[in-house]
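Subject: Protein record for review, amino acid sequence with backbone structure tokens
Category: Structural biology, sequence-to-fold work with a learned token vocabulary.
Format: Residues in single-letter code; tokens as whole numbers, each standing for a residue.
Body of memo: The sequence and its backbone structure tokens, given next.
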Amino acid sequence: KNFRIALNADLFYRDVLNIASPLLLNKEFDSDGKTIVIKDLDLYGNGDKFVIKVATTGSLEGVFYLTGKPGFDPRTNIFSVSDVDFDMQTRSLLLKSANWFLHGVIKSKIQEKLNMDLTQRLEQSREMARKAIAQVQLADHVILKGNIKTLQLSDVMVQKDKISIQICTEGESAVVFQ
């Protein structure tokens, strides 16, 4: 009568970039009277973090790497990036050449723009699942009826080209003979 299903939903970095790029690319960021413009942006996984590759022009030209830890808060349905910071090699370079950039606003702006509210997508997924199991013909005169009670996102796993988010759903089902 009751069921529970756990599966992974994939959030590809290219989709995150499609959302974040218009908010970050070709925008000016000021810090200590200096200005940089983000000309290119890329994301990929590395261990339990993902890497944010940023190419800039302006007061500081070059390619820099930041790392961040993805997370999901099931109470608010917010996918977020925490602990965004320059990787060790970039940090070392910036300490010598552009300390102002190291402690500027760029880290917090990137972190802010990578946070996403997934409430609408979660509701769409719940509705698709509800329709899929509402009434399924198993055989002549045998119908499976189902209802999704809860659908929650939980654990987050970083991969090379995507982030996998575990989805758990609970519901009720019944077999009806007609």
In short: The CA atoms of residues 72 and 79 lie 4 Å apart. Helices lie at 13-24, 88-97, 99-102, 106-113, 119-133. The mean pLDDT is 85. DSSP finds five helices and ten strands in the chain.
